[in-house]
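Lab notes, practical 5.
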Amino acid sequence: MTVTTEAARAGRAHPTKGRWIDDWRPEDPAFWAAGGARTARRNLMFSIFAEHIGFSVWTLWSVLVLFLGPAYGIDPAGKFTLTAVPALVGSALRIPYTLAVARFGGRNWTVFSAALLLVPAVLAAVLIEPGVSFTTLLLLAAVAGVGGGNFASSMANINAFYPQRLKGWALGINAGGGNLGVAVVQLAGLAVLATAGKGHPGLVAGVYIPFIVLAALGAALAMDNLAHARNDRRAMRDVCKDAHTWIMSVLYIGTFGSFIGFGFAFGQVLQVQFKAEFDTPIKAAYLTFLGPALGSLIRPVGGRLADRLGGAKVTFCTFVAMAASAGLVLGASLLGSLALFLTGFVLLFAFSGVGNGSTYKMIPAIFRAKAQAGVDGGGDPAAAEHEARRLSGALIGIAGAVGAFGGVLVNIAFRQSFLTYGTGDGAYVAFIAFYAVCCALTWLVYLRARPGRPAGV
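Output from the prediction step:
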């Protein structure tokens, strides 16, 4: 079954059997106004919910480590390892999750990947108790990494639904709603600590089980697959040959890698560096959700600013601000000032959120600019548009994977810094240096006037 000619002319994207849409032309104003926008919004809403739950499950261990008191026999270095492991698994899964959208369809994969979250949630709810081995905890943390792959598949799917002029907003909303799961799981942990106490970590995982079921059912009943994104199996290989792929991946380490890394580590950093102020888990839990919440809520703002001002300009300013914020955290650490420390970290979360939105806006804009250059040289507009969508979707998957690996590096940096210096100062210096490198890359490649620079990024 295919979409009828009349429906295509009217712009109504009717799903075919199995919820596949054969005709999808978001750049056509008539198509978009007649029903395309409504279909895209519906898919965006349910994508956000599934991705949100995925983020919560992925970062579950940022909360669970706060429950692992003396009865579990795990030192701070071991706890940083437990938060690094799901970050590592989640980053590794992002590329196959991106490919899965093209292979199975965005709706179909969302249903499967959401249902898969039941495995880490149920295992954590049942198995975490005093006396459990560190190896078992590592395995449970690794299984939670499946939630990290949901982001890449969700972003690649939504990227295909929206026209170029709205990608910054749509991707920012999608990612921001998903990222908010980092803060919400912190609040879930706080609620469990406040009501049941620190002896029931499994409850934090257990409360997510019904929401996982709802996410899978919602995707099954309300989302669609796009046929034009189905048969693109070589895009990942082709985009790996483009230098912009690796430049954008480095920049995304600086933005999203910082956000997710700090999300995993912040509670532990507070407990280790300010022991006197945070001698119980609930004291840390009262604060750990603030940064992730602000970074998530502000991410769509980064996308919107990038739509108006250009992604490269917003990204450059973001890295300047992140370097300054990391400098404030370092100064607060040296002074032992908790107020300044919290201020600096909240600013880091906020600016990383802005940068998340602006860097993702840059990805489709880069290939759109290259496509336009090809059209200006006599190329076919439809073929150029298809190529731009094909490569930008693939790069979203690669950048998401590499950027998520930045979360691993953040936790390793904290682990090594506390082992070596007893504080996080070594890690803060490394963050400042890396943000300076990202500033230089953004300016040299995307802002400096030179022949061959992609315009409008």
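Observations recorded by the TA: Strands lie at 20-21, 225-226. Residues 381-421 form the longest helix (41 residues).
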